[in-house]
Amino acid sequence: MPEPRQDVLLRSWVFLRPDRWGYVLAVLCAPAAALLSVVQPLLLREAIDGPIASNDPAGLQRVALWYLAAVVGSFVFQAGYTVIISYTSLRTITRLRRTVYAHALGLSQRVFDREPAGRLMTRVTSDVEALGETLTAGAVTIVVDVVLVIGIITAMFIAEWRLTLLILLFAPVLAVFVEAVRRVLRRLFAEVQTALAELNAFTAERLGGLEVLQLYRAEAQTLERYGVLLHRYRDGAVRTNVWDALLYAVMDATRSVVMAVLLWYGAAWLPEGALTAGLLAAFLDYVARLFNPIQEFSAKVAILQRASSALEKIFSLLDLDDRITPGQPVAAPLESLRLRGASFAYGDGPDVLRSVDLDVPPGQVLAVVGRTGSG
User: Fold this and answer.
1) DSSP state, residue 107
2) pTM across the whole model
3) Four-point Cα dihedral 228, 234, 236, 241, nearest 10
4) Nearest by Cα to 127 from 314, 254, 360, 302
5) What is the Cα gyration radius of the chain?
6) pLDDT tens readout for residues 218-245
């Protein structure tokens, strides 16, 4: 499946721009939160190799207070980021939802003849919601993860460069795997959204015409067709969850392997005295913190793939130019209605009304009825 078009991604900026300062403020919280998170393992190393090793309670209390301040500060910046991004993204999604709904209201009847109402409803609800999930838990939070990963790797290099290089040997394998899964997830999410749109369209049409359906005793056929569509959506969702879970499982397994290799290499190959208890504790803490954003990134890949697919469908609706022609207001009450040479056809079909002349005096109602079955 092709990658999301650049013009689609650029067009989304129109809806983001009015709230841009909220996104900027949220992103600015990232370096502070990341820095305080990176400092914590260093303080842990200092406490173990310093006051604990030398039996210095006063020094341990001082380091513990710094560690507590770093934890509280990191929480404050993370909470601030969460509140700001949630509020800002909801404003953006509200603006987008209003735009899509207003555009749908202005489409001509020909569009609704071609497109089931349930499918259009999916564009206004589920697809817009997928983009909202990306803004709150996907696109912007990746900035926080990138800053955190860079900070952790830098601190690890400063602490012990040989152990850091050993850990980075796993990076190319993870990158190839994540990219392969990302491509599969993008295709699966597109299939799931299409299946959901078809399911919603079928449900809305059958419930809207329930009287006709019951009149012709078509309940069994309708339920059978509904089951086919429902199973198609279910199977696609299951496959998506399996690949997403596989990504999480591989990340978890890799983290455990990295920790084991770290212990083996540190004990067997580092010079004597280079691997202290504090350094080991700090590196184990860093590995756990390093894999957390990488593991979250795997989930955000799935969210981003869902959003990119939803964006293409939303803008395909906004690109529909088949709109109704606004009528002209009546300046004064009409004394009578006169119609001359009116014709009508369904789409490109033949005329079902041709050169109709009507005169309707005020206060009367006129109905034009054809033969049964004429349409």
Assistant:
1) B
2) 0.62
3) -170
4) 314
5) 31
6) 888 889 999 999 999 999 889 988 988 8
